[in-house]
């Protein structure tokens, strides 16, 4: 799985909104500046998040963006899906739509297991968890593994 810049920026923008609170709107310029995200790129991402029902926007002097739901009700997976599409795909195809034959036949359950684990982790962790630096214990255990970021 590869986390694109678009998905990373979308999650970071949503975290800025989560940190601002439920009743506070932030302008795109403020989010872009706080997270070092190119403003024009962020505008497109925020538009996608709005169309995806994750943020709401208001125009005017007191306008800006805010989360459409409480931060503890928005999973990281939702943001990535809205910004980038499916969490895991193979050649742009979702694993259940693939078929393999011969010695490659067992690839299908492998890809499905990868997808299930990614979905489990990103679907379990919310914006509130990340914003509060309160990740679930199983996520912290995985991240604490010294080999988690090393290549064999």
Automatic annotation (TrEMBL):
The keyword DNA-binding applies. Keywords: DNA-binding. SUPFAM superfamilies: Winged helix' DNA-binding domain. GO terms for cellular component: cytosol. It holds the Pfam family Rrf2. Transmembrane segments: none annotated. InterPro entries: TR_Rrf2-type_CS, Tscrpt_reg_Rrf2, WH-like_DNA-bd_sf, WH_DNA-bd_sf. The keyword DNA-binding applies. It comes from the Bacteria. One of its GO terms (molecular function) is DNA binding. PANTHER family: HTH-TYPE TRANSCRIPTIONAL REGULATOR ISCR, WINGED HELIX-TURN-HELIX TRANSCRIPTIONAL REGULATOR, RRF2 FAMILY. This is Transcriptional regulator. It comes from Streptomyces zinciresistens K42.
């Amino acid at each position: 799985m590869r986390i694109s810049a678009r998905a990373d920026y979308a999650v970071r923008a949503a975290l800025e909104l989560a940190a601002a609170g439920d009743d506070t709107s932030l302008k795109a310029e403020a989010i872009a500046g706080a997270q070092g995200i190119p403003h024009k790129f962020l505008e497109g991402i925020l538009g996608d998040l709005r169309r995806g029902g994750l943020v709401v926007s208001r125009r005017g002097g007191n306008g800006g963006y805010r989360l459409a739901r409480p931060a503890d009700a928005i999973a990281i997976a939702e943001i990535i899906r809205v910004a980038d599409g499916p969490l895991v795909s193979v050649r742009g195809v979702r694993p259940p739509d693939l078929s393999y034959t011969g010695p490659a036949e067992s690839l299908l359950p492998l890809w499905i297991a990868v997808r299930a684990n990614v979905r489990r982790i990103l679907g379990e962790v919310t914006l509130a968890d990340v914003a509060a630096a309160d990740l679930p214990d199983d996520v912290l255990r995985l991240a604490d593994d010294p080999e988690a970021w090393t290549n064999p």
